[in-house]
Amino acid sequence: MSLHKGPRTGGAEPDGLSMNPFFGPADPVGGMAEAPPRHRLPDTPMAPHAAFQIVHDELMLDGNSRLNLATFVTTWMEPQAGRLMALCRDKNMIDKDEYPRTAELERRCVAMLADLWNAPDPGQTVGCSTTGSSEACMLAGMALKRRWARRAATRKEGGRYPEGARPNLVMGANVQVCWDKFCNFWEVEARQVPMEGGRFHIDPQAAAELCDENTIGVVAVMGSTFDGSYEPVAEVCGALDALQERSGLDVPVHVDGASGAMVAPFLDEELVWDFRLPRVASINTSGHKYGLVYPGVGWALWRTIDDLPEDLVFRVNYLGGDMPTFALNFSRPGAQVAAQYYTFLRLGREGYRAVQRTARDVARSLAERINALGDFELLTRGDELPVFAFTTAQDVKNFDVFDVSRRLRERGWLVPAYTFPPNREDLSVLRVVCRNGFTADLADMFLGDLRELLPELRDQIAPLDRPAAVATAFHH
Ligand SMILES: *Cc1c(COP(=O)(O)O)cnc(C)c1O
């Protein structure tokens, strides 16, 4: 949390940081090694090695990112990628004129994604890099909203926004929190299709029924952060086609492919979810999830230039000409874009297929073996995103998913437990995200730890109270 209310007071933390005698004098000009303040800028500089060691030692207490089964974000890259990123960390993405080659790599990545996502005319596809899918979703949502405002204004022949009309966006209750943010920040009503029974994501028919003349679009997720399932994008488009036949309403679809847009093209080629569907106006992905790059990079692409209203685009100087840009940030590091291009070049389609196939194999096998333990029930099996969710079996009364999460944490594994949204608030689950670097060997060790914990969990009299810390470990 970066919105601090000031230093933590009254706790165990003293005001000063501790100084090891090895660090030498805090003040390079001389004097005693004095403890630098914790919450105030120190008055004087200190030697770089001492500052390094203090920061380094504090960070040792962070968890081991490789054992973090909660996050979708890349936690391992090759040393070559690390070197390229180090070489580019001083380059600002916005300075297209100073760094034309970095700008060119961004364009190539957009073109590669357009091709990967079957854009009808990859040369016509527009897109940009972002800091992640959240920014990409903000941009895509803004484009939808502006297009709606224009349509509505044309209908009403009035000002820019039709009087009294409030735009809305239709989605499943399982959307990632960035869509709640988008609706909040840009004053759009979020119309959510609730979960029902064993359906943990959007229902195409219910989504179409929520649409009206003020619907800016429908969001379909590939795949859901709650259980790793793909939403039925083609069926959503089909329901909206039928809606258009009935009512004339032409509602565009945005595909939030934060994870799945870098999985499905390699492992589920026959699945039609992308620009092959004419109703899909835009797609985003997180380069730092299954795009296999360290955080933070994301991508947003629009089918054609018509899907991205011209008045949202700003122009920056580029080799004497001007280059269109669409972003919330101005300055942004160029390193992640270079690393994304490196990874595309390095792996190619075959390489990506091999990496994602391995992640899915690990997920499927681990899900199967957890199922075989008998204490759990799978909601998903890791056969869409390499992600699965499971809960305790019906007859398990002595412990719950929060107990399991807490006990696994004692062994270093971070596995979030969380409660589902409407109308399945009765259901609490554990989720495991398998990604590159979570090897079959690590999965074996994880299963071994889970197996060893079970006798103690079964011996509990009842579930312990649900600790808040565990409930918030869920990474959407
Ligand atoms: C992770 C995720 C996001 C947010 O992406 P960031 O890259 O973390 O900003 C949005 N939607 C879905 C479906 C996600 O999985």
UniProtKB/TrEMBL annotation:
**Which residues does the annotated region (Disordered) include?**
1-41
Q: Which reaction does it catalyse?
A: L-glutamate + H(+) = 4-aminobutanoate + CO2
Q: Which InterPro entries match?
A: Glutamate_decarboxylase (IPR010107), PyrdxlP-dep_de-COase (IPR002129), PyrdxlP-dep_Trfase (IPR015424), PyrdxlP-dep_Trfase_major (IPR015421), Sig_transdc_His_kin_Hpt_dom (IPR008207)
Q: What keywords does the record list, in alphabetical order?
A: Decarboxylase, Lyase, Phosphoprotein, Pyridoxal phosphate
Determine the domain of life of the protein's source: Bacteria
Q: Which residues carry this modification: Phosphohistidine?
A: H475
Q: Which residues form the HPt domain?
A: 435-476
| Co-factor requirement | pyridoxal 5'-phosphate
> Under which EC number(s) is this enzyme classified?
4.1.1.15
GO MF terms listed in the record are: glutamate decarboxylase activity
A Pfam family cross-referenced in the UniProt record is Pyridoxal_deC
What family does this chain come from, according to its entry? Belongs to the group II decarboxylase family.
Q: Quote the protein name from its UniProt record.
A: Glutamate decarboxylase
> Which organism does this record belong to?
Streptomyces pathocidini
